[in-house]
Amino acid sequence: MRVHWFEFEDQSWFPAPLRVAMTAYLVAAYSITPFPKLWAERLSTVLIPGQPNAIVDLGSGSGGPIRAVASELTALGYPVSITLTDLYPNGRERDFPHGGGTDIRYWPESVEATQVPATLCGVRTMFASLHHCRPAAVLQILRHAAEQRQPICIFEATARRPLAILLTLLIPVLVLVLTPKVRPLTGFQLIFTYVVPILPLLIFWDGLVSNLRTYHASELEAFTRQLPPADYRWESGELAIPGNPLTVPYLIGRPLTPAS
After folding, report:
1. Which pLDDT band, with edges at 50, 70 and 90, does 62 fall under?
2. CA angle at 74 for the pair 152 and 174, rounded to the nearest 5°
3. Could you tell me the domains of the chain?
4. What is the pTM of this model?
5. Of 8, 38, 49, 62, which sits 20 to 30 A from 70 (CA to CA)?
């Protein structure tokens, strides 16, 4: 049964430096996983090869896997420009230099995934963030994308499975090991990881709850059946992780004819 327990990153009162430190760690953590390649391969199915493609990333935090995904897309022949957005934008656009054919910018204003501004057009993506949303919000995110006739690709890195929940016990150790890979690596990040180890505990808790909150692919498909019939196609499923018995859910929606 899915539960929607408390996560620190969701709270408006949560100190911004801690939120930035937690999401910066996640960027480093994604660098050692196969997720960017898996997600890029699936995301490419809604892009136009050899032409510039606009991506509007929702719930970006500190960028998550976006640079790695962009690199994989470029290698596959899909050049992209990416706009990062978040309910709590952290203003770290300086950390996303242009290069490699990819333009990445951080939208400075707060963006609610259920009501993306009309000025932000392109393929909407959500990487490891949908589980932060309650069912009513998930339904609105999907409805808004379909009504605006924008493709949307939703990928999770967690799973509501016993093994995935058990593996969260390793998170504090991983935080200690991977923190030196964080860029930029700040004194704040080091102090609250190794001297006063608040970050390993916060990241462990949010990681545990993220697994408990994650929707199954069948649940994502059920959301799409609640939407009114439209000229829009949905695809849900599970992505297999190489060398790992776990699978993670995804959902892709796309208009059948281009938006006018």
Report:
1. confident
2. 75
3. 8-255 (3.40.50.150)
4. 0.92
5. 8
For residues 229-233, give the mean pLDDT.
88
pLDDT, residue 243, reads 86
